[in-house]
Each structure stands twice: as C-alpha cells, then as structure tokens.
Amino acid sequence: MPTSFSEAFTNSVFSSEEWLRYTRHIQLPQFGAGGQTRLKQSEVLVVGCGGLGCPVLLYLAAAGIGRLTVIDGDDVELTNLQRQVLYTERDLGLSKASAAQHHLSQINSSIEIQAIDQAFTLDNGEALIKDHDLVIDCTDNFATRYLINDLCVQRAKPWIFASVYQFSGQCALFEPGGPCFRCLFPRMPTDIPDCNTAGVIGVLPGLVGSVQAGEAIKYLAGLATPTSNSLLLIEALDLEFRRIQLQRKSDCVACGKQQSFDQLKPDYLRISDTALSSKTREAMLISPDQFNRSRDGDQHHVVDVRSVDERQGFHIGGDHIALPEISEAILHLPRDKTIICYCQSGLRSLDAAQQLRDAGFTALSLEGGLVQWLQHQFKKGLQGQQQDAL
Question: How many other β-carbons are positioned within 10 Å of the β-carbon of residue 272?
C-alpha cells in the first residue's frame, strides 16, 4: 500500500527545515543523507572558544552537529575581537562560552548547545571526554593539550589538535590506536610564547580553525581525513601547506607503555607561563591601581620591556629596554629604586623582574600587562561618566 504524504513526512529522518538547511551536504555523492545523519547523531566537545574555537563552532553549528559542548573559563575582551569573529562589542565582559552559545543558537536552533563557563581541568575533563564522540582542542596552552591527549588515550576517543603562532599554524587528528600527542611532543615545551606575547595575524586562527572544522565534519561523516595521524603545517605568510606522517613511539608514556595516569599529572598542574612558585609570583606583581599610584613616585623606575615596534605603536611611559637587553642594561638602572616592568600581557615583564631580582634589584611586574591596565583605565573612565551623570 503506498505510503501517504503525512506518514512519509512523519517517518523522515530530517524535518523539512533540516532538509532544506543541509541540502548542499546531502547533494554531495560522498556525503548524502547518511553522512548528514551521522552529523546529527554526533556529540562534539570543543575546548576553548577563542581564535580557533570561533570558526570551529560556527561551522560545526551550521553543519548540523547534534550536540555541541563548549567549555571556556574566560570572558570576552577587546583584544579578542581582532580574530575571534563569533563575538561583537556587545559581548565585552561576558563569558565566552555563554556568549558563544547565544550566537550559535541564532545560527542553528535545531541543535543542542551546552556552554560550560569553566576551564578544562582534571576535575571535569574525564567526564566530558567520556560523554562525547570527538574532542576538538582550541586552546592556547600545552598543559591543557596534554590533559586532553591523555584522557582521550585512556577513553579511546579521537581528538583534533591545532595551534597558531604569528603566521604559522598546525593541525592533526589523533585517532585511537595511532600515535598520540606525546609521540609528537614527548616533553612539554616551556619557552614557546602565546599570542599575547608573540602576536598572531587575525585571519590565521580562522584558516586553521576552518581546517579543524572540515576534518571534524569529514571524520564524523565517515569520509577520509588527511590529517589522521598526520601533522599539517600551515604557513600563511608564504601560503604553503606541508603534511608530515606521524609514527607511534613504543616508549611513549601515554600510548606506548603502561604508565599510571597519576604519574602524568605534574604536566597538567605545571604553571604554563612561568616556573615561579605561586607565592613568589604573587609577591612580584603590582596591580594596575597600585601602578598608577606608584609610577611617578621618586622611589620607582618604570621600564617597558616590549619590542621596538610595540613601543612605537603605544606605550605608557618609562624607559624602553627590550627583554633580551635586560641583562646588559643592569649596570645603568638605579639600584636605590623599585623597578616596575611592563609588557603586553605580563609574561615578559615577569621574566624581566625575575632577572633583575636575581641581580640584586627590587623589581615588580605590572599584573596583566598593558591589556589589564587599559581595561582598568576604561572601567575607571566609565565609572566617572556614570557618577557625572548622577
């Protein structure tokens, strides 16, 4: 007996709106309704919704991933808007994860989007990875990547790694049974600066994040993925792409030989931006408010430790001594004053302050660098305007 129109409509895998939305996927011979169905049934965890996470989330939501979980403990800042295209100026100060959830739900209301306003840690990581089909790393630090890798190895879950630096990017898909992230990087690097320190061209996270999203969609739909157990190197300045085949290492501490998970924990607990203890680090920091009260006093000497280009672009006074030149400039700095160092994000200035302390100076670092100082100034200005209005 022929199926009635109403029965056919009720028994369809997709609603009429979904069919229209995803018709360009379904028309692909390699994809079809089966590939789109697999996307609809997939659950993906995206760790970090910054420069990489924004394009990843945009394309996965648009592609119809059934459930997207995004986890990020940061808030939207003005410096993010140069590359984090999911956010607008209205989102400044809001949780990244919640703001991302809001915008993504407006792109595709037919999928489930969960926002977690926390950092990805040992406490929540295992349960999250266990509950998803694929994990996508969109973070900017090695400690989190090692944690993702080791949990995925334990749970036999695939995950997609990516990173960006100035004009260069990397991407790899690690599948269960193949080489893992520790096969590629056996030891955690400690001297690689992040985007706050080294900078990044705004379109690069978009380019690399789009590669991540494309590989995720193909993998979940059952298509071939060239980054599977391979490292893709992307050079945006020369527009060059290279792919390196990865090999599993028999002595890998995560996927090679049996090793207790507890033995790997120091990698996740390590302070990624400095080897200093928390107490020592805290004692070397000066808040933006304290900096404003102290900078012009006779007992303090301010030093900008950024590059020449950064200094020319914007500065807030003080001597200019780039970080690599600190050791040579020690002879010329006043020992009877407290040296206050500043940079873009507070990492280089902390290094400079430690070098000066080792040489016998009293030295401090502007907490959060120029970014936090400027945010402090903007808030003060806004509060002043509100008081004047009253």
Answer: 17
| 128 CB neighbour count, 10 Å cutoff | 19
Alpha carbon 20 to chain centroid, angstroms: 34
Rounded CA Rg of the chain: 24
CB 210 within 8 A of CB 236: no
Backbone angles phi, psi at 333, to 5 degrees: -90, 145
- The pTM assigned to this predicted structure is 0.74
Is beta strand 168-174 parallel, antiparallel or unpaired with respect to 362-366? unpaired
Kindly report which listed range (72-86, 219-233, 274-288, 376-390) carries the lowest average pLDDT score. Answer: 376-390
Which CATH code, of 3.30.230.10, 3.40.50.720, 3.10.350.10, 3.40.250.10, is assigned to 278-389?
Answer: 3.40.250.10
Q: Closest Cα to residue 344, out of 382, 316, 385, 380? A: 316
Residues in the chain: 390
In the chain, where does the domain assigned CATH 3.40.250.10 lie?
278-389
Q: How is domain 14-269 classified at the architecture level of CATH?
A: 3-Layer(aba) Sandwich (3.40)
pLDDT digits 0-9 by tens, 41-64: 999 999 999 999 999 999 999 999
- Integer Cα distance of 339 and 284 in angstroms: 11
Going from the C-alpha of 353 to that of each of 60, 82, 284, 327, the distances in angstroms are: 44, 29, 7, 11
Using CA atoms, how far apart are residues 341 and 334, in angstroms rounded to an integer?
Answer: 13
Those residues with Cβ within 8 angstroms of residue 33's Cβ, 6 or more apart along the chain or in another chain: 13, 14, 26
Identify any residues that bridge with 135 across adjacent strands, giving them in sequence order.
45, 159
| 18/33 Cα distance (integer angstroms) | 11
